[in-house]
Amino acid sequence: MVSPVLVLLCGIGLVILLIVVVRLNAFLSLMLAAFAVSLLAPGDWGEKISRATAAFGTTAGNIGVMIALAAVIGKCLMESGSADRIVRTCLRILGERRAPIALMASGFVLSIPVFFDTVFYLLVPLARSFSRIIRSGYVLSVLAIGAGAALTHTLVPPTPGPLAVAGLLGVDVGHMILMGILIGVPAAMLVFPFLNVLEKLSPLPVRPYPGEQEAPPRPDQELPPFWLASTPVVLPVVLISANTILKVLAKQNPQLGSAALVASIIGDPSLALFLAAIVAMVTTVWNRRLSLTELGRMTEEALMSAGMIILITSAGGAFGAMLRQTGISENVGRFVESQSQAGGLLLLVTGFLVAAIMKTAQGSSTVAMLTTAGIMGSLFKTPEALVQYLHCHPVYLALSIGAGSLVFCWMNDSGFWVVARMSVWSETEALKLWTVTAALAGVAAFVVTLLFAWLLPGAFFSG
């Protein structure tokens, strides 16, 4: 029998080799690694390939619908002008003097249902316009957008990375949303003063795009009202969170059983996102005067973009499931148990560091989170065993992994190039500014996670 630790190392090495050196697509790389690990793990030879594909299907069944619906919501927010309305309202409330904070808040909120790249494309033109008016603050505004969007991109479902990590570690999606927001807000507040320092060290001007003209902003009267624009973002968060909270309260107060039952239906993540998607589509049709054919074409584009994300996250789930088949949980479980209370802290630190290493090696935060969650989840046979060894709620391990996936963002990450090109920065400038900002955001999120794990080990849901 091959050593479980050796199989684990071979699996990690194969993923890095295929993605970084061979430049193979992440889905193919993760599935090949899952097959390889399954072949080396104990079990019936006739089932070693089929169990990997079955694990792929299980993960897809758990998260596929949610990722697809989140993509539709994100597309509709952009096309209807809802995202624009949310940003302009934040700017109006906070005022021009606090525009960087408003841009950070906008990035933080919009990156929950919308992918990081899309949020950045939307908000950077606003940062450019604002900085031209006041003739300063461009670097601060851009970094504030990036930091806010990156934090929710790696901490708050239904973004694919956090959603998949929650599934792999047995964390309730509602818990992940609530704690991701609670960790992300103070982390953003911790990072912001450092962004001011980076602005003073590198006060870069707004540079023109080479050979391109920026699209003019849409008139305010063409945008939907704020309450309607924000509903697709707020509705699923409220419904899913209500389901999670009522589920806990009903255990202590049986009279809430009926309310908890209703909440369990409409607060199911898939249905909650479906309702939000319907609101988003209706808003888009009403505001843009689209025909049903045009709406169908638009949603099809969104679903096509979601398809690759579903494939990658499901392949990551298969890889993690095959690592669990190696039997490594017995070895690691004995070691962690011997560490007593230090074992829980050790797991959080390990999750953060492994995610950071995977991020640095291959570039994608989502792949780093999937791989790390697969590794950490494979160390324990059941979610209950994980809780026993952690001495705190497993949501903190999921958030530690998310925080680690922000360190180290450099030239092998597509997000690095989005920031560099949209900001019109050189590679050196992007390394000095964006790479440092992403690392600061990751470290800040991890520090806040450790603090919460120490002060509130049950994460409000120990009941």
Automatic annotation (TrEMBL):
Keywords of this entry: Cell membrane, Membrane, Transmembrane, Transmembrane helix, Transport
Subcellular location(s) of the protein: Cell membrane
InterPro entries on file: Glcn_transporter (IPR003474)
Membrane disposition: Multi-pass membrane protein
Domain of life assignment: Bacteria
Record-linked Pfam families: GntP_permease
Any one GO cellular component localisation term in the record: plasma membrane
Transmembrane segments: 12-40, 52-73, 101-124, 136-156, 176-198, 226-246, 258-282, 302-322, 342-358, 365-383, 395-419, 431-456
MF terms (GO), sorted A to Z: gluconate transmembrane transporter activity
Family under the similarity heading: Belongs to the GntP permease family.
Name of the protein: Gluconate permease
Species for this entry: Thermogutta terrifontis
